[in-house]
Structure formats: structure tokens, C-alpha cells
Amino acid sequence: MRIIKKNAMFYMMMIPIVVYFAMFAYYPLVKGIQTSFQDYKLMGERPYIGLDNYDLVIHDPSFWDALWNTLYIGGGILIIGFIAPLLIALSLNEVMKSWFKKTAQMLLYVPHLLSWVVIGGIFIFLLSPDTGLVNMLLVNIFGMNPINFMADESWARSIMIGSAVWKDMGYNCILFLAGIAAISPSLYEAARMDGATRWQQVRYVTLPQLMSTMKVIFLLNTLGLLRIFDQIFVMRNPAITSKVDVLMMYTFQKGIMEIRFGPAAAASFFVVLFTLLLTVMVRKITRFDEV
Q1: Which PROSITE patterns did the record assign (predicted)?
Q2: CA–CA distance, 86 with 110 (Å, rounded to integer)
Q3: CA separation (Å) from 260 to 46, 56, 64, 251?
Q4: What is the pTM of this model?
Q5: What does the pLDDT look like over 128-166, one tens digit per residue?
Q6: Which helix or strand (DSSP H or E) is residue 175 part of?
């Protein structure tokens, strides 16, 4: 009791934070779980129907298609979006000219500041079959026929993965560079005194010392793997929906477009459950608690 009185001011400062999370995070979560067990309607009775909504979602083939698309696209973004910024950060760390390093960081970070509406417009413009820069290069330099990238199912997932990696490349790269900057210079000096080459310094000093940063970035990216929505909503079209519609689009379709809140809530609960399972798996595999 004496400790509580002593730190009363700090507990008072935490009240707005607790209220915020209770109102905007945990109450919607509890309400969503309740809705998933109801025949939810905007007006009138909302009887409880047990697991019928979950049964409907599990036996819906489009749900499993959406799950596969989510794992495919999200997995690609997770792996490539982790490796590519790491390689660029290691390369930039070797650049001696500070002005070039700062300029490259700024240029890489700019796409992260843009909304998906702008990013989608850029890719639609670049990949247009008539006036897109990519097709102009393919036709005029390589003599190929123009490709309708945004309406071709074979390109759909690759474009989604590539655009997402490009957008967040700079953000992850800066996190890696911050981790590299925190490595003690004495370790590099000791390695050089032992005759280590530049590559050996990267392999035996930089990468091991960067391990904690890599674990944090990989875990944060894993948490967002199943929550892909804005990008798909902006860049999808009827020609490629079967290849790019993800779990959050399935939930949006059920809840907003079809006004079926019960199945939408059940699908949302699966997203939360799968995210928790993935997070636990990643923590175990990467030994995150040993950071």
C-alpha cells in the first residue's frame, strides 16, 4: 500500500492509457468474439447460434483460398522484405562517402511515407500496357509484346510482394543501420588486428552483433503478415481477385459488402488466432527471449 501511495502519480498517468486500450482495443475484441457466436443483425434480435458462423467459414472454399493467398503473399513479403533491406544496410555500411549514404537512406525511406493509394497509382502507371515505363522498355529494347501486368494472374502475387517490399525497404533498412551503428568499433579493431578481411568482419562481427535487431524486425514483420488489406484493396481488380484476395479482404467482403457480421467476426477471430500461433512459432524458432 505504501508503494502504491508513493507511486500514485505514475499510476494516475497510466489511467488514460489503460482507458484508451480498454475502449479501442480490448472492448472491440471482446465484442467481436461475442458477435462471432450470434446471428448478428443491425436491428432486432441477435440470438446466439453456437459455432455456426465458424462452421460456415471453415466450410467456405473462398476462406481457404484467401488463407493460401495470405500465406503466399505475406510469406513473400516477410522473407524478401527481411533479406533485401539487410543486404542494402550492409552495403551502405561499407560506403565511405557519408553524403552518398545519407542520400541513399532518404531516397529509400520516401516510399514508406506514401499511402497505398499513391503507391498503387505509381505501380499502375509504371506497369500500364500502353504507356507504362516497364512495357515501353520491354517493347523498344527487348522487342517483346506488352504485358498487362496488373490484369495477369501469373504476375499478380509477385507484384503485390514486390510493391510491399519496395514500400517498406527504407524503414527496415534504417532499423538495420541503427543496429549496425550501435556495434562497438573496438570489435572491428580487434578483428582487423587479427587479420580479418572486410567480409570476415561482416560475417563474424556485424551479423552476430546484429542478431537482436534482426529478431525484433522479423517478429514485428510477422505480426503484420496476416493483416494485409490496404494494398490489396487499392491494387486488386476483378481479373486477379482469385490470386490476391487475402483474409482481411474476405472479412471485409463478408462484413461490409454482404452485411454478414457473424461470419466476418468468426473469420477475424481466425486471423487473431493464426497471428498468435505464428508469433509463438517465430519466438520459439528465433529464441526471441534470449535477446
Answers
A1: ABC_TM1 (PS50928)
A2: 18
A3: 12, 11, 18, 9
A4: 0.86
A5: 888 889 999 998 888 888 888 888 889 999 999 999 999
A6: helix 153-181
